[in-house]
Amino acid sequence: MILDLFSLKGKTALVTGANTGLGQGICIALAEAGAEVIGVARRSCEETAELIKESNGSFTEIIVDLSDKNAVTKITEQTDTLGKTVDILVNNAGIIKRADAIDVTEDDWDQVINLNERLVFFLSQAVAKKYMIPKNEGKIINIASMLSYQGGIRVPAYAASKSAVMGITKALANEWASLGININAIAPGYMATNNTAQLRQDADRNEAVLDRIPAARWGTNMDLAGTAVYLASHASDYVNGFTIAVDGGWLSR
Ligand code: NAD
User: Fold this and answer.
1) Tens-digit pLDDT profile for residues 220-251
2) CA distance 9 to 187
3) Of all helices (H) and strands (E), which one includes residue 230?
4) Which residues of the chain have pLDDT under 70?
5) Which pLDDT score, from 0 to 100, does residue 246 have?
6) Which of 16, 19, 22 to mutate to test the pocket of ligand 1 (most atoms within 8 A of CB)?
7) From 152's CA, which of 4, 109, 211, 224 has a CA 20 to 30 Å away?
8) Whether the CB of 138 sits within 6 Å of ligand 1
9) What Rg value do the Cα atoms of the chain yield, rounded?
10) How far apart are CA 224 and CA 207, in angstroms?
11) Ligand 1 centroid to residue 67 C-alpha, Å
């Protein structure tokens, strides 16, 4: 009986950044739990589609550059064209730019804030307004970071944007929890994806990161699977505005 609460059968999930990394893992997890998944990405999500097909799941892609100022409208228009509504939104896509704070350019700052922060808010607003509030039901999962809690090194715009993600999660929960919408976030620890490739290639930084992780390994994209399904399902109906760390214990140190 309890496992039925975790089923996503009959639900449609929209996941941004579905072609690689954590987004791909989340798509696979939600599809395995029964959701029809719509993956949003700049490039074709061939690999994600193939992996989901292997387990007889359902996956459709919407190709949109999320840095386009009309991205939100394009996503909702294409969702309508597919004849779908959105029950679950995962704001996963994100970018990181590494530079000493003294050298950060305004252009890099704006790119990071626009994608990691502004889009998270306005896509949530559009999806809630169009699909979730009319049904009095919905799940929004934002992908935060350890840098929602910490300052990081050489990534000030990223740290600012991910702190904002935690703030947006709480602010929207305060307004929309009573409308049947759960908004929560997952703060991944140090995961082996493109986002951390530069860090892992730097032998000193790689060792320093690993030394600090109690679980003594980098996370994988499937490490988020259970938490994503939980937050997308009825099992989390009384969880609102919270950011769950999936970090191998990093924040406990
Ligand atoms: P990744 O670089 O593999 O994935 C980023 C995703 O965002 C990709 O699918 C990419 O195509 C998409 N994306 C970026 N810019 C886009 C644009 N303009 N239009 C459309 N799609 C765009 O890295 P990841 O680690 O899988 O990152 C996923 C999320 O997890 C990000 O929000 C990241 O900040 C967050 N995160 C990652 C880690 C980690 O250690 N890897 C830790 C904490 C948080």
Assistant:
1) 999 999 999 999 999 999 999 999 999 999 99
2) 26
3) helix 225-232
4) none
5) 98
6) 22
7) 224
8) no
9) 17
10) 23
11) 13
Q: Which CATH superfamily is domain 7-252 in?
A: NAD(P)-binding Rossmann-like Domain (3.40.50.720)
Please report, for the chain, the start and end positions of each structural domain, with discontinuous segments joined by +.
7-252
Contact call for residues 237 and 173 (beta carbons, < 8 A): no
104 token code pair: 């950060």
DSSP lists the bridge partners of residue 58 as 36
pTM over 0.90: yes
| Choice from 24, 38, 92, 221 to test ligand 1 binding pocket (greatest atom count within 8 A of CB) | 92
pLDDT digits (tens, 9 = 90+) for 27-49: 999 999 999 999 999 999 999 99
Residue minimizing CA distance to atom 32 of ligand 1? 94
* Nearest Cα to Cα of residue 169 among 206, 146, 143: 143
Distance from C-alpha of 148 to C-alpha of 169, rounded to nearest angstrom = 11
The Cα 138–Cα 175 span in angstroms is 13
Helix ranges (H only) for the chain are: 21-32, 46-54, 71-81, 106-113, 119-127, 156-176, 197-201, 203-212, 225-232
How far lies 250's CA from each of 15, 119, 127, 198, 203, in Å?
A: 26, 28, 33, 19, 19
Q: Tell me which DSSP letter residue 87 carries.
A: S
